[in-house]
# Entry
Amino acid sequence: MAESITITDNRTGEQLEIPITNGGVDAAEWRKLLPGVWFHDPGLATTSGTESAITELDGDNGILRYRGYPIEQLAQQSTFLEVAYLLINGELPDRAQHDAWVDDITHHTYLHEKFRKRMYDAFHYDAHPMGLLTSGVAGLSTFYPDAKDIEDPDNRMHQIIRLIAKMPTFAASAFRHSEGQPFVFPDNTLDYPSNFLQMMFEVGNPYEIDPALRKAMELLLILHADHEQNCSTTAARVVGSAHADPYTSVAAACAALYGPRHGGANEAVLNMLDSIESYSNVDDFIKSVKAGEGRLIGFGHRVYKNYDPRAALIKEAAHEVFAVTGKNPHLDIALKLEEAALNDEYFISRKLYPNVDFYSGLIYQSMGFPIEMFTVLFAIGRTPGWLAHWDEMLAQDSRIARPRQLFTGNEERSYVPMSER
Ligand code: CMC
# Structure
């Protein structure tokens, strides 16, 4: 059978055969037969914006692979910085490449002190850390004007290293600012997750990093590192397609991530669990969701129509964290919600399963992160993914993102002076 589709314009009887390539049909071919007839696809749910070789996501079968490597193997055997290298460069590094990469990132962790201080001082003490992070990342573009040269792959790589290195420093600064605590400078003798945990939690005495918590931090960063064309990555690509510098493009991604339908969901899950209050209220809560009174946050996904493999890994890791920190008091409510939803026709028929955000917040909270920091943690993890897509897009012959619309407003009419309205 031919791997193609044939479209017919019933107004003229004209036909055009379009090959199906890599699971898609080329809209440029479509345009030849139907100029001025647009695909109407709100939410871009059936539109591919690019070819990409970075992440494969098979939502029906619950499969996630970075550059061909299953997420389960990377989660168990790799490190976040190695995964970042893989996403950006396409292959796992050999020892020399790995060590040079880690060394480079480790030595770009500092923020210019004047910039850091002045910027954070400008914010109120209770400013949401995602607001601080988004502004801080955007502000870096004014600090590194050399980043505007986006045509040079070496220069792009230099900015990529800077940004991956500085995200934890920004994040910890935002937290310290909101707590009114003095900033802890990066310690370049520590690995990436340990350095971040130390900048977050060191108070006075030397901070002892628990190996189980360090491991959980590394795992969560790996699991968030990429997820192909999600809302925030698409935001970075749209802004980057206008040839904005990488800091501005990643700031756009941070802004998109902030929303509760996307990365803000991990924060919203904890607020939801809080509002349910007790195990005995779970059934009533599920009824209210089914009655359309709100959503079961941490459930459902545009692409996964099966258990999100990241949620399964996080659920497993939660027990290792709770063995150190004690069980999160919200765990029983979460487990009962999951059980109730997975056995309920409403959720089954809509293929709604726990996503990455359902259990991650419980771990973060038990590790001592305040709820407002959860989306910031997602952002640190997702930064290599955003940058890998930004770099891939610029290496391709990409066009500026500029969709069409179906205009439904008024036809031409004459201006009416105020006195006659
Ligand atoms: N609770 C209850 N019903 C839901 C939920 C949910 N969490 N998610 C989807 N539905 C229902 C929805 O009401 C609709 O029902 P009907 O067909 O009767 O109108 C049906 O399922 C399809 O939903 P949709 O809104 O068309 O699905 P979408 O692909 O546009 O939205 C989503 C995907 C993730 C925004 C949505 O599932 C949602 O709002 N989930 C809760 C928020 C959340 O957990 N977000 C994190 C997503 S994973 C990490 C990330 O992307 O950052």
Remarks:
- Strands lie at 4-9, 14-21, 24-25, 55-58, 63-66, 69-70.
